[in-house]
Write a structure and sequence with these properties.
The protein has 1 helix and 16 strands. By secondary structure, it is mainly beta.
C-alpha cells in the first residue's frame, strides 16, 4: 500500500522552507566581463559545519527515474547544505519533507523547469537525486569532511509521487 503525493512546479516561494531555488530570472544583479555577462549573484546560502570541513563540488551521474515514483526513503545532512545543479536543461524531481520531532513529516514534491537548480538547507529531509531523463548529470555542491553527515529515514508505508 502507498500514499499518493502530487508533484507541483518548483517555485522559489513554495520551496523556501526547505532551501533555495537557483535560476536566472529577471535582470542580472551585476554585469561583468566588459558588460557581456549577467551575473545572478549569491543565489544560495551554503551552510557548512565542522572544524575540518570544507565546501566541495562533485559531479554525480544518476540513473533516470520515472513517474509515478515510489518514495521509500529520505535523507538529510545535519552538517551541511547540499545543492543539485543539473548539467542539462531537463527537469528533475525534487522531494522534501518537514521535520517533525526529528523524523520527516509528509513529503512534498516538485518538478523543476529548464534552468532551475536547488540548494537544500542544512538538516532538511529530502529525496535522493532524481533525474527524469538521461543523462542524469549534476554538479553537487556540499560539505566535504570526516564527520558523519548523512541520516536516512525509511518510510513504513512508501509514497507514490505523481504529476499534479
Amino acid at each position: 500500500m502507498t500514499t499518493a503525493i502530487q508533484a507541483t512546479h518548483l517555485t522559489a516561494e513554495a520551496f523556501a522552507p526547505y532551501g533555495d531555488v537557483l535560476e536566472a530570472t529577471g535582470t542580472p544583479t551585476k554585469l561583468i566581463n566588459q558588460g557581456m555577462c549577467g551575473r545572478f549573484h549569491d543565489l544560495a546560502h551554503l551552510d557548512i559545519l565542522g572544524e575540518n570541513a570544507r565546501t566541495g563540488i562533485s559531479l554525480f551521474l544518476s540513473e533516470k527515474r520515472a513517474l509515478p515514483y515510489r518514495l521509500e526513503m529520505v535523507e538529510r545532512h545535519p552538517l551541511g547544505s547540499q545543492a543539485f545543479i543539473p548539467m542539462t536543461l531537463e527537469p528533475f524531481l525534487v522531494i522534501v519533507a518537514p521535520d517533525e520531532g526529528g523524523k520527516p513529516g509528509r513529503p512534498v514534491a516538485f518538478v523543476s523547469r529548464a534552468g532551475q537548480a536547488i540548494n537544500f538547507h542544512r538538516n532538511t529531509w529530502h529525496g535522493v537525486l532524481t533525474p527524469l531523463s538521461e543523462p542524469g548529470l549534476f554538479a553537487v555542491v556540499d560539505r566535504i569532511g570526516e564527520e558523519a553527515n548523512l541520516e536516512e529515514h525509511w518510510f513504513e508505508t512508501p509514497y507514490m509521487i505523481e504529476l499534479a
